[in-house]
Design goal:
Elements lengths: L5 E9 L35 H10 L8 H17 L4 E6 L3 E9 L2 H18 L14 E4 L3 H13 L6 E4 L8 E2 L12
Helix pairs in contact: 2-3
């Protein structure tokens, strides 16, 4: 259960220039002023916003991809910043182009965006020797987690569904080491 005045949120952030307006996986602009008819699960028709995508690609910086060696450093710095500032963190995963985190933050979305923004900044600074400049794009998704079952499902999704190349960390890990290729534990089977 979250503390009074707080809420668990599933935070999803992308690296710079990897998901632009007009993307073939679907997109939403700020306040949904422009959006595609699909999403990454059910993509929109091919070429729906091709001109818009080309427009943004021409003006965007190169895509930022997080090297395998930097994922752990970024994940640790992100989680460490949050925990040092009094926010509980249950899980973090960092992949080539995005990261997921399950964190307990205040209810107000504007405050959440500031908190996550500072954690993004801290994680970018942790790898500035190997990845100079910005790592993360602006914004992100901040999905509320409604109950314990939803929290457990989100925790497991972050740890086990991000692919073999993802660096993952859970509050159950005794240190900030985290691991790659985390496998879902087998369910115990009871005999009737």
């Amino acid at each position: 259960m979250p503390r009074y005045g707080h809420l668990w949120r599933h935070v999803i952030i992308n690296t710079l220039s990897t998901w632009l307006h007009g993307d073939e996986r679907g997109f939403r602009s700020r306040k949904h002023r422009i959006h595609s008819s699909g999403d990454y699960k059910k993509p929109p028709p091919a070429g729906e916003h091709e001109g818009l995508h080309e427009f943004h690609k021409e003006r965007a910086r190169d895509e930022v991809h997080i090297d395998h060696e930097d994922r752990a450093t970024i994940g640790r710095a992100f989680a460490k910043y949050l925990m040092e500032h009094g926010y509980r963190v249950l899980a973090v995963a960092v992949t080539k182009v995005h990261a997921h985190a399950l964190i307990e933050v205040p209810h107000g979305l504007n405050e959440v965006k500031k908190i996550v923004g500072e954690a993004k900044r801290a994680s970018s600074r942790a790898v500035e020797a190997t990845m100079p400049g910005n790592v993360w794009s602006a914004g992100g998704k901040y999905k509320p987690v409604m109950d314990r079952a939803h929290c457990e499902k989100t925790h497991d999704y972050i740890l086990y569904e991000q692919g073999a190349e993802a660096w993952t960390w859970s509050f159950r890990d005794r240190s900030m080491v985290g691991i790659y290729m985390r496998r879902r534990p087998a369910l115990s089977r009871r005999k009737p």
